[in-house]
Amino acid sequence: MVLRFYRGYLREFVDGFRRGGSTDIASYLLCMFQVTLSHKPQMLALHHAGASHLLLPALADAFGAKRLEGTTDPRLRYAIAYHVGGIYNDMLLWFDRDMAETPSRCATWRWPCVPRARSHCWTSDAVATTGSHNPDLPVTDFRVTYSKVS
To answer: Which residues pair with 145 in a beta bridge?
Structure first.
């Protein structure tokens, strides 16, 4: 039942982000925190009851981690795991603080932490080269591409 709640919350986030029409990471983060705040009583009740750990598999499912298990190139799996872990830990910290910060402040604080390393980048291209598209991913054209680091 808890996992179903988290999956529904993530579906609401995905739908809200897509309706917004923007694909930039700042809008993505703001939407994520806004939708989470709209469920504040439930999120905090689950957190205080020790059920927050179930958010992690819901996030992994939403980002298609299971669908990529059979791929031969593990780089996209690592990128998704890193992203899911970051979101999960951001949420845990926010819940620990009783969601005291506004969604705008959380997104502003989180934005500088998004990796901009030369080894990977967020693009607006579709998933043509990875061949693994999960329609439930929050960013409609989400893809991580890799380039050789010299």
So the answer is: 121
Q: What is the dihedral of CA 120, 123, 129, 135, to 10 degrees?
A: 120
- From the list 136, 2, 147, the residue with the least C-alpha distance to 67 is 136
pLDDT digit string (tens) for 8-43?
Answer: 999 898 888 888 877 777 888 888 999 999 999 999
Which residues pair with residue 121 across a beta bridge? 145
Q: What is the DSSP string of the chain?
A: -HHHHHHHHHHHHHHHHHHH---SHHHHHHHHHHHHHTTHHHHHHHHHTT-GGGHHHHHHHHTTTGGGTT-S-THHHHHHHHHHHHHHHHHHHHHHTTT-S-HHHHHHHHGGGS---TTEEE-SS-STTT----TT-SSTT--EEE----
Report the 10 Å Cβ neighbour count for 125.
Answer: 12
Nearest-angstrom CA–CA distance, 30 and 106: 8
